[in-house]
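Objective 1b. Sequence-to-structure analysis of NAD(P)H nitroreductase.
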Amino acid sequence: MHNTQPWRWTADGDGLVRLYVDRGRQLVLEDPAGRNAVISCGAVLDHLVVAAQALGWDGEVVRFPKGPGNDLLAEVRLEQSQPSPTAVDDLEAIRTRQTDRRRYTSWPVPDEVLHALVAEARRRGAHARALDDEVVRFHLERLAERARVLRAADPIAQAELERWVDHSAEDGVPGDVLPSDTDPAVSPPSRFPAGSVHETRTVSSPGDGVIVLGGAFDDRAGWLRTGEALSRIWLRATRDGMSVVPLSLPVEVDAVRHELRKELLRYEFAPHLLVRVGWQAIGREPLPATPRRAVSEVLRTT
């Protein structure tokens, strides 16, 4: 969330890697329960496993080895193996995947593509459902706008968000990846302030798809699985030429999250995150890469 990179790693030199959530990077006002921090860690955990397999290492994951309340989220035991058959594509997807908040084209995401992404999420142990009904999507837009208005009315939370825009050379959301066009007649309102990416295309009818990720409970075990599922959706979508934007705000606001679970999911599962998937214009320039902390800051070897 906001490119806070809330993780710490340790490696013992004998193939055992441990992942911890870094509570010092958890957003106090926007993420008081730590849901988004743990989801972020789940995504980076799955990225590690995919990258390891591409480089010829099998990763056996043990989640919460010291219990769900501990900051140790997972242990990964690496055993040398053969590189995965999709190694080149997998590593390229990890390098190039990004959050692109620019408007999608009107080319719809086919149902079979959306449901394939749902299947990817479920294989990672998360609950997932595509919101492909027009009435449901309209209701979702209303809920998302309600969440945005409620959050915008909290000046302290807004200040926390704005601190993470152009936060540093190593983390945060650079202004040069945020759209400058905030006209609601052209684009849906954003939680972020206007950036410097100019939109030049005319308004197009929405063609994106939305997937809800969640779990049986709104708990840390489910959040970690949701993060792993997000990673798999993101990497597959990137390989297939699609763009992905995680949408956490409707879940962050308690009243909206409860209504989302009741009205749209009919209590099927607890929502943890929404994922928007769509097609960017052919030939569109990629956005600048968002910054990352140095390996020496996030990894301790023993």
